[in-house]
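Record type: monomer structure entry
Structure origin: computed from sequence
Chain ID: A
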Amino acid sequence: MFFVPNIICLTQNEIEVPYKFKLTDINVYSFEEALYHFYHYWKQSTEDFLSDDFILWVKRDLNQEYIASKISSLRMSDKFSDKYLKFVTIIDYFSEQELYALKNDLEDWEKRMVWEQLKAQADSLVNIGEYIKAANIYLSAIKLNPNADIYNNLGIAYNKTGDYKNAYRVLMEAYQLDPGNQTIIFNLAEASILRGNFDNAEIMLSKVSGQENKYYLLGLFYMEKNGLELARDYFLKAYNLNKDDFYLYKIIDICLSQKHYDDAAKNLNQVKNKNQDFYLKQSEICFMKNNVKEGIKTLSGAVEKYPSDIELWAALAKYYRLDNDFESASIAIEKARSINPNSIRAEFEHANIKKSQGKIKDFQSALHNILEFLKKIYRANNDF
């Protein structure tokens, strides 16, 4: 129960209309009582202190026009903590020690608000495949609050970009902060395998729950150790439990590495969701069978269906380049670069096209730009 004691009031002795706080349902009859409430129940009062209703109450019912105007002027401040501290010091009511304690509480809470917003922003970028951008935002969030969830999601972003070294490092941080978290254990096991740290992978595998998860990780484990038949068996077991297209793509990758192209095509035909991944894999099978023109045909149809997919445009540019159609390759890669100017995948293909055309200076310039971008990412990754 919330309670505001009787307080000696300087701004008003008696008024007929109290101010009722929205979340605590408490009535106050003076500005001093209101300040007491704002100080002790500030988390429940954040919507009140700059509200039109409160300012009108101060101006009209308390007859304190000067204080009301001072409160209104606080809306121009940027930081929430600055606004709130200026508000509670409009009159000389609290001691320095009380204000110092409130300042610390407000700043801690404000940091939490910021890191949660950053995490939500980065999570949304991961969902649309913008892993590098997401990683940089997660790094900013970690500086404010190095918790297990952010480290875990940062590790996922690193895994998606192929940066297994950093993925393993940050997922180990997550695991140390929350060693019982099954999601973190699974992601750390995956990163350990992809990093080539098989001893730690086996330790993590022993802690993973869920048969499907274990089958997938065992498939990945043997795939990385070149035990392809065992890997295929485990991916198939995982697929039989869930019928997820993801496992079919893993089986297709094994078929391609074994040059079993017909088996790869048969497994691809079982894929339920004919999305961008489907067309990329279909074109890859064409390429592996030395049928580049068929791959171009597949991707040309795919970009009409998904005109904003950078991976499809970059793959199309690659196959045009391999077919020595540099004009079409350049058009396709410029389309990819226009969609995302920061795509490493697109920039590498852009450089390869310049090299294939014999434009060495343009090739060197493109490589320089890639290296500069990678340096920025490296500095960000190692600055926390």
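Annotation 1: The mean pLDDT is 88.
Annotation 2: Residues 319 and 325 are 9 Å apart (CA to CA).
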